[in-house]
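User: Assemble these into one structure.

Assistant: Restating your components, then the assembled model:
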Amino acid sequence: MIQNRIKRLMVLCVLACCMSAPLAATELVVWHAYRGAEKEAFQAVCDQFSAQSDGVTVKTLAVPYDAYADKITAAVPRGKGPDVFIFAQDRLGGWIEAGNTVEPIDFYVDDEMRERFLDNTLDALTYRDIIYGLPLNFKCIALIYNKKMIDSPPKTSAELVALAKKHTNAEAGRYGLAYAYADFFFHAALMNGFNGGVFAPGPRPTLNRPENVKSVELILKWSKQDGILPAEPSNALITSLFNKGKAAMIFNGPWFLGEIDPSVDYALAPLPALDEAGGNPMKPWMTIEGVYVAAPSENKDAAFDLVNYLTGAEAGKVMALKGRQLPANKAVYQLEEVKKDPIMQAFVTQSKVAVPMPNLAEMSMFWSPATTAMNTIIRGTATPKDALDKAQVQVEKAVAKLRKQ
Amino acid sequence: MSISRNIFRVTLGLFVGGLVSAFLGYWFAEGALREKVAETRVRQGTIRAMALADLVFAEQSRAEKEKTAPGALIQFWQQRHNDVDAVRVMRLSGARLLASSFNDDLENGTPPRRLKRSEKEIYDLGQLLRANVDTNREEGNPREPEVISEELRNGRLRVSVPWFTAKNPEKAAGYVQLEVSPTITTRELAFWPVLVLALVPAFLFFIGSLILSRLVKLEHPESVLWSAMTTSVLLMIFCLLGFGNYYLIDLGQENVRFQQELAQLYTASRTSAEEGAAEFALDYETTYTNDWDVNAYRQPLRYISFDGELYIGVGTAQDTVANRLGMAFFGCSLLAIGLLVFFGLGGAARFWHIIVDYREAYIYTLPAMTGMLVLVFFPFGYGILLSFTDQTLYNTEKPLLDIWAGLNNYIEIIGDFNLIQTTEAGWSFNYQNFYWTLFITVAWTVVNVSIGVTIGLILALLLNNKNLRFKALYRGLLILPWATPNYVTALIWKGLFNREYGPINHTIQLFGGEPVAWFDSVFTSFLTGITVNGWLSFPFMMVICLGGLQSISSDMYEAARLDGANRWQQFRYITLPSLKPTLIPAVILSVVWTFNMFNVIYLVSGGEPGGSNEILITKAYKLAFQDYRYGYSAAYSTVIFLILLIYGVFQTKVSRAMESNA
């Protein structure tokens, strides 16, 4: 009786094994944080890959954005994570230093692959000269203007100031230009325009370099002397000003477009060049969503094929047209449908001069002192030089303590 | 009864203490030996690899025309050294395998050739070494390993070192990887001292006591306890000293032997490198320093001179072993003596009786105790352990002992009195200083709890009015702030305090005031936190007070009125004293909660401006997840714990005193 049962069980087991064998084909798990149209487009691309490749299926998992980074930090190094995941470059350095999270894929990346991405985007995913991921989408700020007020967007900062002055009436709450200039992410456009920066070379903080001071002085001139900027440049204020037609021009990114009131007729243009910096263009910081192979993945080869496919032209097309994203693949912008899209063209033009935001782990130490410095400068309680010096000391201390040995 | 129970206990203590410390000590000694062997094996592989890397350097630095793949070179190297099983030379530029005698590589095609897609690991290792060399050079301190070694399952060792070219002597051009079977032989550690330590003291003591008890008849055999304890402790210490010294000397001698073998090996490598350079007509001369015997950061160890002399004497060799092992032995000795005292004085016997007598109770609480152990005490203990290390984001993979920092973190936190900064512009507080944060935290706690108690009490008194209608409605409404998740409340308040759109500033403007930038100055920013936390904390106090008020008998008030007491006197002499037993525990709890009220500070002011309004717990969070200094942050948390512990002990004493007065 019992023996019979055991036999039956064994037969069942064998059967189960046989049945599951065809299903046991490679399954790649991908984590992302997309929602809405972006999620649908991404799912479509993954399905395409599954359909095309033999025996490889892709399973996507959308993780809520707030918990996403911590989930990767906690799960991936312990082998509980996905095969492939997507994240912006800002956390990359920390994950690489922590180890066993992101697989270097430098070896797979040939010259042809390097060539297919927009300038600089691959740099964002390179750490210590090793490529750790391929760029999927990029985001950066550009000039958004109200067509009713501005006929042709300014090409230089002098034109910008002249145009903005015309549309400024502080008493009526109207401003020619509005953007979150106290936020270092937005300010970076000016800073990089002066060839400034926050870390260089390597992880050495250089917050108070003269170029940065000059860029902050220009902001002070615009807001205090020219008076073309609102006093408290919060994001909510800028949205409301632009939607009420009280701001002629703003600097903002693709995430902002969804917030614009349908009644506002707007257009985009690249940020103007800075006469004060010898005609250099303003170079905003660019965030790049990279696709990474997880270091503990058991299917790294297949995983890289997926990474390669996701960042290819075919996938880029779907994500651009269906998901309204900005793929980092150059070929996408040669498509007729995309060429006709002025918004995408504006951002891709802007990306050519944009600078990838540093991917150092130390960036997390920079934000708080830098924000404090900007606030004190704008409030006028400290000179740009003093405030940046102070921030520099703070960041320097934190970096030195972290990297001592 | 010839032998007292005490003698048995002490003998048992000597046996258990000796046994435990002997096994622990043996385990440590064996670990130290294994560590030394592993280190020596790596050094052997490193010397071979570094020497070959020098030859590869010379070979690859030749003019373009004369350059050949170093295949013949590695063949020569392998022939000259029996311990080298396989060699691989890899060049990063073009991802090329220049030469290899690894079977796997040869199956994939004869080098020189480009690496195949399946050989990604070979390439990745090269990139890692190159990046590590770059990082160490850029940062000016060695942090990343430049010699990577790996023990293989088959008893062999794989060592990889970078090689350079004359054109670019600072940038690793590739790496040389050797698979070696190290020739270092070791012998098993002698086991007899363990048995000696476990058995001899106990035996000696027992026999001695036996003889003594025959010779001297005591009227009160129990009174010998102290002299027995002293004797046994001395006996134990004597045996422990012998035990420890035996292993330390033994390991020291073993270490010297390792060094001698390495010196021979080095000299042989040197000879063959010179011969190799001659045979292949390489432009290479061996230097008059030993640059091949290096640590993981490619820094010369300088134990062996270029002509094979040992710089390291027996004494130094012993010291290098003794440092950690000596500490471990010391710990073992303390444990042994602790056990001896525990057993000898009867602690163990009592402990055992308690467990046996209350076994059901212990069985019932076992699941809870296990849960507490795993979920509370383990993380707690780990946090404390971490606080003695220098762990940061960059060294999480290192064992904690390697990054041991002792009390440094605590000294840095508590010993930093740099509270006031002076610049040309004048002086200001250093908001990053621990004492500033502590001051803010204490101020924050005191103000919050006072506000919570005051408002809660006032509202409770109002609600306790018997003639009040719709009492349930008011009570429900007033409890609402407590029922809402506190982060929701915190975020709503943050919106209310907004400089531009916040209703609070709108109200101020309505009355003709200037809008206030709430988070820009220390005081106003502090006020926002107080307001939010006051809003969050009064309902709890109100509920507690209400409960307390309702339990006060109305007879007392009636009696007081008959005696002519006014409202204030009633409140002062009846209400407050009756409330005390309910209020005091609530205040104690509330102080601890407020002290660690992370959400309100983190979400509302975020410690602005410039970190001045940070409280200790949010500061600890930022140290860990913004500055990535895990060890330091753990020390910070431990300091918070200690402060609360002191507060708790103090508070209990005070409340006990008050209870006994009452």
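Strands of chain B lie at 84-91, 96-100, 113-114, 148-151, 157-163, 174-180, 420-423, 426-429.
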